[in-house]
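COMPLEX REQUEST
Ligand: fe (ii) ion
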Amino acid sequence: MPVQDFEKIFQEKIDNEIKIEPKDWMPEAYRKTNIRQISQHAHSEIVGMLPEGNWISRAPSLKRKAILLAKVQDEGGHGLYLYSAAETLGQSREEMINDLHSGKAKYSSIFNYPTLTWADIGAIGWLVDGAAIMNQVMLTRTSYGPYARAMVRICKEESFHQRQGFESLLVLSRGTKEQKEMCQDAINRWWWPALMMFGPRDSESTNSDQSMKWKIKRKTNDELRQNFVDMIAEQIKTLGMKLPDDMLKWNEERRHYDFGEINWEEFWQVVKGNGPCNKQRLVARKKAWDDGEWVREAAAAHAVKRNKTKAA
Ligand SMILES: [Fe+2]
Ligand SMILES: [Fe+2]
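STATUS: Structure written out below.
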């Protein structure tokens, strides 16, 4: 069959909401885009464990420690599902990890910001996991089967992450003067980076059109960002806190909140590796990889031994 026919069958499947599976024919660019997006997503889950892991030993109570431990472990699990989903497209786990360590592969810039106080852990759950959910709920319907199925499971855990973050901030927002200030300060620092998580404006986003046609994405960056602002602008009323944006205002005509402009200079600086913690994160990841060498060796040796016993 000529390639054009394969392409036609492929696009028809997409148009008819039939998932693309690992052994199906797919355009090279579709494969590449998915590998890039899924592995980037996997890296984000794994690197995202670092700023929060930083607070496990300092959580203010046993209850908070148990919740945070569970959440950080969930993120590790998300990374593993996603690496597996990317592997079905023909990229090895090792190549993906190498690309992360060499700086060739990106991960979400949000994890290059530091966690300065306990309230940051609440703000991350509420705002960062909240922004991630907006994107991930859409991805449960993405066209590549293994990615979509991984996202269904991930989203269930993400909604717990967001709720625990909000609840933790709610306690602080009803606490002492210092706790209230700490809560507001964390919101002030995480709000804009959270908005940046949706990526560049649609007008500047290079991959958007093709990704929409292939139903890898189903909503644009600006649409998702607007949905997020609308959700958080309402939820913050319960906290009795303020979002650090003087332009934030309900627009009756649009039936959406208007909001101020993101600092795009800061956005691109962090993407390029010049955020507050970029270097620190990569050093920590590489160290974890090196320290885990003996575990990988032991697991491989055990597998060889077990196969020999089976064969005998
Ligand atoms: Fe996650
Ligand atoms: Fe999460």
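REMARKS: The longest helix spans residues 145-173. The radius of gyration is 21 Å.
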